[in-house]
Amino acid sequence: MSSLLGTIITSTPDINDPNFENTPILIVEHNDRGAVGFIAHLPLMKNLNELAEFTQYPPVPLFIGGPVDQENLFFLHRRPDLIEGGLLIKDGVYYGGDFQQVLAHLKDQTLAEKDIRLLIGYAGWDPQQLEEEIKEGSWVITNQPAFDAFD
After folding, report:
1. Domains along the chain?
2. Is 107 helix (H, G, I), strand (E, B) or coil?
3. Which residues touch 69 (CB under 8 Å, ≥6 apart)?
4. Which neighbouring-strand residues pair with 141?
């Protein structure tokens, strides 16, 4: 199977995991080490400024990225002009980059909430695991634009 980078996969009723029931996931990494993706549309019902280390920042909503590594913050954005080092995923959506620049631009309000998605956790698969789950029918590959999952 060719790389699924930038693809949105959606769970089917056959999935056997309540974390992913009827869930679209944007794949941001897919290689011989496995795959990484983000749910991106499920609000955490908490804002960035509610986290102890970010109380001085605006109340930007946090989203559930997935069940893995929920101790860390990840981000997707549409502003490579403001945030260096991000990886272009698809449709002008970037994964990661310089988080200090994110914080600075959030603080001075040059980075709009609509242009960033702050995520807690991610979805991850071991090598060949995602390919097997697609073959067995747990996931379908969709053609929706990457940022549809955000809007």
Report:
1. 8-149 (3.40.1740.10)
2. helix
3. 121, 122, 124
4. 9
